[in-house]
Fold this protein.
Amino acid sequence: MIALEGVRKSFGRLEALRGVTFAVPDGHITGLLGPNGAGKTTALRIVYGVLRPDEGRATVDGVDLARDRLEAQRRLGVLPHAQGLYARLTAREHILYFGKMHGMSGAPLERRADELVQLLGMQDFAHRRTEGFSQGQKVKVALARALVHGPRNVVLDEPTNGLDVAATRQVRALLMQLREQGHCILFSSHVMQEVSALCDRVVVIARGLVVAEGTPDDLRRQTGRDGLEDAFVAAIGSEEGLA
Amino acid sequence: MRWPRSFWVVFSKEVREGMRDRRALVAALFFPFLGPALLVVMLHLVSQPSRQADELGVDLPVAGREHAPNLVAFLEQGARVVEAPPDAEEAVRRGDVEVVVIIPPDFGKALRSGRPAPIRLVTDESRQQPRPSAAVAERLLSAWSRQTGAQRLVLRGVHPTVVEPLAVEHVDVSTPASRAASLLATIPFFLVMALFTGGMPVAIDATAGERERQSLEPLFAAPLPRSALVAAKMCGASVFSALALVETAVGFGLVPLALPATRIGFSMHLDPWMLARILALCIPMVLLASALMVMLAARARNFRAAQTTLSLLMLVPALPGMALGLMSARPPPSLYAIPFLGEQMIITRLLRAEGVSLAQVGLSTAATLGAAALVAAFAARTFERGQPLFDA
């Protein structure tokens, strides 16, 4: 369960978020949809605690990030917008490093790493240093390290960006699997096909405000449009920045 | 997760990654030997002339000795007169000998008739290094000339002092030991350089480098106290800084082996006990240097900017140490409270076998550790706000 309440955030004179409120329930995949520059990444960064809101609050399972950032972050698995890896560490070492940061150690951590290597199909490159990895391999490593501690809540910023079809399908399958297990999943995208293929719930954000929220069906009803794409455009008020 | 564990997880990863970084290893392992190597070369150059001039006496090649036995006898009082090489000018030009005195056959005849007796002094003025035997030759010849002139004046009933209105006396108090000891002042400078160059690649890589490769954001999203994150990165850089430092110190410890004391004319106090004390003195500097580098690199716009900033930073503490070498007056005690300067002053005193008080060490160590803590606290605050991630 992730929630933003009245969150405002400015960078200098630019108001990135102008009072954003939405909740992400467990057992669902929630898509944060909006054109480029709408404030998706800023909203997610506030959720996973690398940015602090100017006003309002963000909670994870009811834990306020401003009060107890570490406890909230423990409950999160994060695939940030930036998925940089350490070129001189192997894929598996990345998983172990983040597992240790989440307080895991020893045989349970090793077992969990092996499990993730299996789950994400990383057997071929698990013991290679990440220098020269393909985009798909990089995303898998980043996903594995985000999920190493089995977080209840998973936040992903444009997870399929730059992936080929096969890798995209793998990521989608993984997200659906997590949903079956009752996780709370929030991911951002500016790709409508992806949102419509995956999401139970959609939060549409534009110019720093939530302009629509609900199931895809709700959205179609709210806007009076049949196609999801038309519904988005109607909600946002323009076609700019969508794909 | 508790603070020490967070610190340890990040710290051990920084060290492991650094050990796999060739650039970091080269900086930590290769550059430190430059200082000691340079010192050996300089000591060698400094000790050479003095060895000849002061300990063994000057060799003075003289050609045509049979033409002026009296003069040669005089020269032998101040130098060791040796056989001149066959082609004097060529030998001097090649640098085989510094000087050749050539006494022509008509020397005796000219002298007896009271005309200025011809004598040739072959030297190469283009050579920069000191030429003690040339100087000795000139001094002896002019002394003999004065003495002979004086005798002539006396024969003619004139007192010799009439033609000697000045009595200049040269007093050179430099000894080979003091000349070489001035070079020891470069040791603290090289130590400070080593601890900066050793830690720099890791300090940059762990901050500006991580941001540039976009691996800092996942780290900030992890449940780590930011102060532990900062401390781990600073200590990671410290490991490589200390590595370079130890190597430099060991290198300096090897210098006396390369140049025995009998050759440079004095013994250097660079035994293991001295090195251990110097290294202990350097620990606060290692921490402060790493803290400064991590703090500044985290605020730099990018990798390149961080490199530029840190290269300049390195000169700041090194310069006072250089000035110290030129400073002859007794420094006021308050200077020991200046980080880097205090340590360099103490190390210099140790090397010169001058006394070091506990108060001096305490003041300098406390000041440097205090500064390191301040810098670390400041960096932790900027990390807490997430600044290194976005505000660059």
In short: Chain B touches chain A at residues 1, 5-6, 9-10, 13, 16-17, 20-21, 210, 213-218, 220-225, 385-386, 389-390 (CB under 8 Å).
